[in-house]
Amino acid sequence: MVDEPELQRFPGYDVVAQAGHWDSETRAVVLGRLRPRRETSFFSETEERAARPLLDRLLANDDRPDKVPVFEMVDQRLAEGSTDGWHYDDMPEDAEAWRRTLAELNRLDFAALSSQQQHDLLETVREGECFAGLPAGKVWNLWLRYACTAYYSHPWAFNEVGFGGPAYPRGYKNVGVGKREPWEVEEVDAADPLPWVQWVEVARRRHVARGSRL
């Protein structure tokens, strides 16, 4: 059993405790995410220097005591060629797009910037038109798709959001808003996050406005 991260919204909940109810293939896949390969398979050392802080900034994942190994999971996925099965017609295939955009981040010495400077640079990508010779919005989409897919496929993220885990072969019987399975835990802080999200957006716009006046 691995050390469990500190749980707050769903105290005491551990999706891994339900692994005995999963089929063997599902169990191997999900539990394998707890121990991803530590040796880099796709990214070079230079690319890793930019990729790690990029993924940390995208997910605010760097200061967490239960840090999900997103970099290792993205590296493994790209090494295996496990893509979404499509890419935009004005973007190269995912592997090449990652290499080109990380090269541009390294050219800008992204890893040496402060956290706030990294945040600001990434904001220019999110709102920009072109990055590394590619459509900036689609670069942002690429980064975020891989980051979020890795993060939310990890059992610690399942615990964080109270996800009941794979449904096969047991399935779910208590379907509906506010209904829980016997092994699930009630959320202790069910505040609607929307007002907070709106506050963050207001703060972001003020930050951008102040920067434009400097």
Task: Provide an overview of this structure.
The protein is mostly helical and 214 residues long. The chain contains eight helices and two strands, in the order αααααββααα. The protein has helices at residues 24-32, 45-59, 70-80, 94-107, 115-127, 136-151, 155-161, 194-213; strands at 130-131, 134-135. A two-stranded antiparallel ribbon has the order 1-2. A hairpin with a 2-residue loop joins strand 1 and strand 2. Helix 2 (45-59) packs across helix 5 (115-127).
Give the topology, please.
Layout (H helix, E strand, L loop, with lengths): L23 H9 L12 H15 L10 H11 L13 H14 L7 H13 L2 E2 L2 E2 H16 L3 H7 L32 H20 L1
Antiparallel strand pairs: 1-2
Helix pairs in contact: 2-4, 2-5, 3-6, 5-6
